[in-house]
Amino acid sequence: MRWISAALLSVFAAAAWANDVGQVKVTKGAVHVERDGARIPAVVGMPVREADRLVTGADGTIGVTFADNSLLSVGPNSTLAVDKFSFNASTHEGQFDASLQRGTLAVVSGKMVKQSPDAMRIRTPASILGVRGTEFVVKVADPGT
Amino acid sequence: MLPGPDGKSGTVVVQREGTRQVLDTPYAASHVRTDGTLQGSPVSQQQVADSFGTTLAALPARPTVFLLYFLAGKDELTPESNSDLQRILADMRARPVPDIVVTGHTDTVGNAESNDKLSMQRAERVKGFLTGIGIPQDRIQTAGRGERELIVQTADNIDEPRNRRVEINVR
Description:
A: 2 helices, B: four-stranded mixed beta sheet, elongated
């Protein structure tokens, strides 16, 4: 039986890898990741997956690198959802959709945008940003300001 | 829009309902007015620092490629690359949980098979420098590409120092 469980383990390990689209590289203050209904405190080294929501408190910031070398950072009092991320490391084709629901976001686009402009889209409650490159910031104003 | 390392900006197209604005110069900005329309007007460097300083400070280090060059037929660095090494290791040390790919290459002296082996030895040598400063093995992938990816295209059996290299990609 031992070899069967070893084989199963490696299948699960491979599956976990396939879901990982990015990695947390920087955190400060209160930050957590909402995944499948759970709130997981964000720590450096933690993988980021499609459908994750990055949520920061008043003193929180988080920086993430993605598989295509895109970089994102989220400021305090913010919520960013990673709606869709796919990337083919051979062709550099892919799609990256994220939604800034509140707060601030900084972006340095990566290889997929270099390959196909508009592969990356950022949504805010008021607009859609089609990204052809490269570095920019986005802010969703608090309601009432 | 922010200027990149070369001082130029890329392009972002902002869309809201039927309207769109193209932002393609440093500090170009689009604002959604309270009546819902888009207003294009640039912001100052100071406004960006005030509104986004904390956010920008959390951006991870830029993915980077470093090159190290080797002595002919050996897995030993050239004297120049040997002195670059400390600077490169300092950059690596500053990155939390780095993802590193180390790829070895050769020139066209010797046969393809021995060059595959030599390129892998070069990559493993560089991996050794990285694990030597405490980077865990499982964060470093190595590959030997032999003489398949020449930087300077040459005929077979040409001694070309620029082709004898290891590329370190770090994210």
